[in-house]
Structure to design on (110 residues):
């Protein structure tokens, strides 16, 4: 481990405990939730693709309960830094996409 090696090189030692805070998950591209998210993006003239990502999210927890969920790219800038921000334009676009998802699901439920 890098921490232990560095501590040893500097004459110290490190005790490291690793815990899983967020479980990983994998959603198949053919899942309804993925198709709805992609359709909502297309309806707004956006491109939509699936990627593998690290880190934790509410989706990580929700998926453990058997409720398929996806994470929408929301336009953060300088994420996980002291300068993290989200432009208002990106926030508005995300709100539009969520509204589009609601419309799609409502139509499918009829």
């Amino acid at each position: 481990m890098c921490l232990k090696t560095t501590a040893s090189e500097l004459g110290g030692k490190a005790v490291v405990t690793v815990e899983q805070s967020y479980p990983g998950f994998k959603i198949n591209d053919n899942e309804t939730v993925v198709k709805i998210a992609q359709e909502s993006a297309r309806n707004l003239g956006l491109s939509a693709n699936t990627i593998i990502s690290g880190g934790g999210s509410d989706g990580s927890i929700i998926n453990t309960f058997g409720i398929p969920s996806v994470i929408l790219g929301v336009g953060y800038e300088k994420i996980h830094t002291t300068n993290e921000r989200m432009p208002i334009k990106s926030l508005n676009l995300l709100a539009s996409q969520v509204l589009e998802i609601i419309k799609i699901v409502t139509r499918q439920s009829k």
